[in-house]
């Protein structure tokens, strides 16, 4: 079943719907605070990374519902992993290691915990995990060995959970 794309169509539909809704919510949040984003290249890059994480899930979902041969789907998923990985690396470098924002007031424990979470996300990046797992899914699908599309479950979980967490941290910095 991990190598039959047609069996994953329902998963793809649900994935695209959920990720599309989260992407829309991110656009609303970003548009509300667009003045702050315009002044901070770091925050703008972090918002863009969050958008890319959500769009990986949207695009993976759309690829799953398109009727196509197994090898073509694998190649498209591999291209998605490579292109999104490169974009995420560029955005991460552009964002840099922002020293401002949450956590600088010791009395503000909520922000300090947000900084701890941000450091954890940098160390165990959902960006890297997502793109690597999508690439593994693609390669194992094309080779018809090693799990195939089952790798998309942890990949899309990392994408969505990482995106939601990044969006929350991003919004905490915007409101702080």
Number of helical elements = 7
Radius of gyration over all CA atoms, rounded: 17 Å
Number of domains: 1
Q: What is the residue-mean pLDDT, rounded to a whole number? A: 84
Structural category: mainly alpha
Describe this structure in words.
The structure is a single chain. By secondary structure, this protein is mainly alpha-helical. It has one domain (5-175). The chain is 78% helix and 0% strand. It has helices spanning 9-32, 34-39, 41-65, 70-95, 109-123, 126-143, 152-175. The longest helix has 26 residues, at 70-95. Mean pLDDT is 84; it is low at 98-111.
Please describe the topology of this protein.
Blueprint lengths: L8 H24 L1 H6 L1 H25 L4 H26 L13 H15 L2 H18 L8 H24 L1
Helix pairs in contact: 1-3, 1-7, 3-4, 3-7, 4-6, 5-7, 6-7
Give a brief outline of the structure.
The chain is 78% helix and 0% strand. By secondary structure, it is mainly α.
Descriptive terms for the model:
176 residues, mainly alpha, 7 helices, 78% helix, 0% strand
């Amino acid at each position: 079943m991990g190598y039959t794309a047609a069996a994953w169509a329902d998963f793809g539909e649900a994935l695209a719907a959920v990720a599309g809704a989260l992407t829309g919510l991110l656009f609303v949040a970003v548009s509300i605070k667009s003045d702050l984003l315009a002044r901070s290249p770091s925050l703008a890059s972090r918002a863009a990374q969050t958008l890319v994480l959500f769009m990986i899930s949207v695009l993976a979902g759309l690829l799953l519902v398109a009727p196509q041969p197994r090898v073509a789907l694998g190649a498209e998923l591999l291209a998605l992993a490579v292109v999104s990985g490169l974009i995420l690396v560029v955005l991460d470098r552009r964002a840099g290691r922002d020293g401002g924002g949450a956590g600088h007031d010791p009395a503000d424990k909520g922000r300090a915990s947000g900084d701890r979470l941000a450091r954890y996300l940098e160390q165990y990046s959902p960006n890297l995990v997502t793109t690597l797992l999508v690439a593994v899914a693609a390669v194992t699908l094309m080779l018809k060995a090693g799990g195939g599309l089952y790798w998309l479950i942890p990949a899309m979980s990392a994408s969505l959970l990482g995106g939601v967490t990044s969006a929350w941290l991003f919004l905490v910095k915007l409101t702080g």
